[in-house]
Amino acid sequence: MEITVTVNGRTRTRDVEPRLLLVHLLRDELRLTGTHWGCDTSNCGACAVWLDGVPVKSCTVLAVMADGHEIRTVEGLEGPHGLDQIQISFVQCHGLQCGFCTPGMLMTARWLLDRVPDPTDEQIREAISGQTCRCTGYENIVRAIRHAAAAERDAAERGAR
Ligand code: FES
Ligand code: FES
Fold first, then answer.
1. pTM for this structure?
2. Nearest CA owner, ligand 2 atom 2
3. Is there an atom of ligand 2 within 6 Å of 94 CB?
4. Is the pLDDT reported for residue 63 higher than 70?
5. Which Gene3D superfamilies match (predicted)?
6. Superfamily for domain range 2-76
């Protein structure tokens, strides 16, 4: 089947098998390997991307279901002025170790902060509850998301002055 998806603002058309998963379209067909494939059970969340602005596990979505829709992957986080604040905060707060879970964490955290600029720890933990980190532990990840939220609030206040 021929499908057309918009990924990180770029329109891509591919002829795909109906059974192809979105995670494999992204990684194997479009070579966007920032999205990770970490399990066969829809548990790990390393494959999280945005579909029409909402985080989804891309291993649970068929590529054909994304036909005509917008996808944002971790490669689309960086903007014209450099890394997104959430990426900067993960680095500054050591929110990663091996980095395998990080793409999913970043996409979910970005989604949360776009909606809740000053989240509680509970809201952060709930937002990332679909992601599994097997090595860092969650303390620094939560700290990184809090750090990004504070930095963005500071920047917004400075801009408002
Ligand atoms: S690859 Fe593990 S939830 Fe998608
Ligand atoms: S940083 Fe290694 S799994 Fe999360």
1. 0.96
2. 98
3. no
4. yes
5. 3.10.20.30, [2Fe-2S]-binding domain (1.10.150.120)
6. Beta-grasp domain (3.10.20.30)
Of all ligands present, the nearest one to the C-alpha of 46 is 1
Mean pLDDT of the chain: 97
| In the chain, where the domains are located | 2-76, 85-160
- Residue 155: CB within 6 Å of ligand 2? no
Class of domain 85-160: mainly alpha
What's the CA gap between 101 and 23, in Å, rounded?
14
The answer to whether residues 128 and 108 touch, using CB atoms and an 8 Å cutoff, is yes
Strand 48-51 to 54-57 pairing = antiparallel
The 10s digit of each residue's pLDDT in 88-146 is 999 999 999 999 999 999 999 999 999 999 999 999 999 999 999 999 889 999 999 99
- Say which ligand is closest to the CA of 58: 1
Assigned token pair, 32: 């966007």
Alpha carbon 38 to its chain centroid, in Å, reads 14
